[in-house]
Amino acid sequence: MACIQIDPFQLVLRPHHLFDQQMVLLTCGDFANQDFNQMTIGWGSIGTMWNKPFVQIAVRPTRYTYEYLEKYPDFTLTTFPDAYRNALKYLGGHSGRDGNKLVMTDLQAVAASAVGSRTYAQAELSVECQKVYYQDLDPTHFLSPDIQRHYPLPDYHRIYFGEIVAVWGDEKYQG
Questions:
Q1: Residue 2: pLDDT over 90
Q2: E runs forming strands in the chain
């Protein structure tokens, strides 16, 4: 898919739709050394923090991708046309601990422009991020009692803040 470079401050999207409906693929690792993993995520946010464009993602320490987020300094968030929805479901429902799950999809990994993690040839939006902060969720700070129901194990998420350093996408994302 032909993508254009988009200034992060000109990026136009529906954030709630992005994470709740569209499906986002988180990828982290070193593409050059073929040491990476990806997972579909449904929780995150996008905005401005410390006067920089940023994304915030939530990953449980029990997920295999968590190991990559701890090891590598960057990550990508990628969205795809609806034709790839089954591939995203597969990547979100299977662990990379069990083998290279990407080979079970029709997605092709390609180098990102500004980070060591990868993106995908079929992407309609690719957001490249440099990690700048993380924080573990503390259940004693939950102000709404219904939040705890998301943690029966309890395997509380680590929240990663990523400064957006490059965006490539379909022109519909250009402001």
A1: no
A2: 4-5, 24-30, 35-41, 44-49, 52-59, 74-79, 109-111, 118-120, 125-136, 158-169
